[in-house]
Amino acid sequence: MPVSAWLPAVDKGKNVVKFRIRRKKRAGEKNSRGKSSPWTWRIAALILAFIVFFMAGPEVEIDTTIHSLNLPENPDGNLDDYLTSSEARFDDLIPGTEKTIIWAGEKGVQTDLSLVYVHGFSATRQETAPLCDVVARQLHANLYYTRLTGHGRTGEAMAQASVNDWLNDTVEAFEIGRRIGRRVVLVGTSTGGTALTWLAERASANGQAGSIAALVLISPNYGVADPSAVVLTLPWGRQISEMIIGRQRYWEAENERQDKYWTNRYPTRALLPMMGLVKLVKGIDLSRITLPVQVFYCTEDQVVSAANIETAFAAFGSTQKQLVPVTDAESENRHVLAGDILSPGTTRPMADKIVRFISLY
Q1: 64-68, 76-80, 326-330: least confidently modelled range
Q2: What per-residue confidence (pLDDT) applies to 94?
Q3: Which residues, other chains included, contact 190 with Cβ-Cβ below 8 Å and sequence gap of 6+?
Q4: pLDDT tens, 308-357?
Q5: Is the CB of residue 357 less than 8 Å from the CB of residue 139?
Q6: Exposure of 215 by Cβ count < 10 A (0-12 exposed, 13-18 middle, 19+ buried)?
Q7: What is the SS3 assignment for 343?
Q8: Whether the predicted pLDDT of 27 surpasses 90
Q9: What is the CATH number of the domain that holds 134?
Q10: Which end of the chain has fewer beta carbons closer than 10 Å to its terminal beta carbon, N or C?
Q11: CA–CA distance from 237 to each of 13, 61, 222, 266 (Å)?
Q12: pTM here?
């Protein structure tokens, strides 16, 4: 080995002289100490550029702007006509899914309590029927069934909906509930429960919580059971999900009535506002919700996360809250916990529990 120098090193403890060999630098060889290869910088720059590109990608839009309503101020002010007119715009609406009021007695007469029902993603008001009808009769309450934008129609119509559409649908439902009842019982299933959770927190913030008698949630969607679904909320979520799932999503209905009243085939992009709504509610302060809250859920739910439901329930600020495990749901996915279509045997018992809970407050 060519040697340029012998460098003695003294071990002071043992007075021993040691030598190390310094290799002679070859012609054209550069000192690599403290210097990075040009390729290292190029790779780092490419990674940084990819991160910037990824983070700048399109995401699901979460717009909480609430638009002004043109509702009749009084219950006898042609609310039925208002709803009929608003739904008449759609020629593909499935009969039995439209927005409607079920009056407890004479049409247009306000009751002490009213019920407002908000259905889940891809479903309609038929999903748990006649649960709310039974509760409303026992409480002698007017009942309003809403319809979230895009639902009860075609799969393509669902793909046109947005988070903002559903928030405005929910606010409209609440305002109708306030007109047909002095205090409102809010009932929501799955993603309908997500929307009503947002509404309850909003009402607490703007001084309207006194108008709400109770919040009843059935399998509320605070996160889907499949954790990989979070990709839908990321930049490029639509594009990534379409690569994984495909452009269309389809699931098999349990029976003919579910096939009729649910939308079980729709563009994959229709999932984005659902996950956007979940993301929105994950960011709100649930401790501000201090009104009575009753939550029904199944630990074996295959659609939404039961653990997330338990976490959200613990976070509610209400001292008047009740978590009700449902162990005898008849739906295959243990998600729809009542209703003649998927779980008829649990409908009456659940209705009785809701009535007892509301009667306490």
Answers
A1: 76-80
A2: 98
A3: 119, 120, 121, 123, 218, 219, 220, 221, 303, 304, 335
A4: 999 999 999 999 999 999 999 999 999 999 999 999 999 999 999 999 99
A5: no
A6: buried
A7: strand
A8: no
A9: 3.40.50.1820
A10: N
A11: 65, 11, 19, 17
A12: 0.84
Token representation of residue 128: 């748990």
Residue with tokens 């990674």: 47
Residue 18 resides in a domain: no
CA distance 176 to 129: 20
What is 151-213 written as a DSSP string?
TTS-HHHHTT--HHHHHHHHHHHHHHHHHHEEEEEEEEETHHHHHHHHHHHHHHHTT-GGGEE
Rounded distance between C-alpha atoms, residue 201 and residue 123, angstroms:
24
Q: How many CA atoms lie within 13 A of 62 on its CB side?
A: 18
Q: Has residue 260 been placed in a domain?
A: yes
Residue 256 near residue 225, CB atoms below 8 Å: no
Closest CA to 170 of 88, 280, 306, 305: 280
Which residues neighbour 289 within 8 Å (Cβ) at sequence distance 6 or greater?
Answer: 197, 200, 201, 204, 215, 316, 317, 318
Examine the pLDDT at 33 and tell me if it is beyond 60: no
Domain that holds residue 352: 79-359
Q: What is the DSSP letter of 77?
A: T
Number of domains present in the structure of the chain: 1
Can you give the C-alpha Rg of the chain in angstroms? Answer: 30
C-alpha to C-alpha distance for 62 and 277, rounded to whole angstroms = 7
Which residues does residue 266 pair with via DSSP β-bridges, in sequence order?
Answer: 249
- CA–CA distance, 218 with 296 (Å, rounded to integer): 5
Report if residue 52 sits inside a domain: no
Inside any domain, residue 56: no
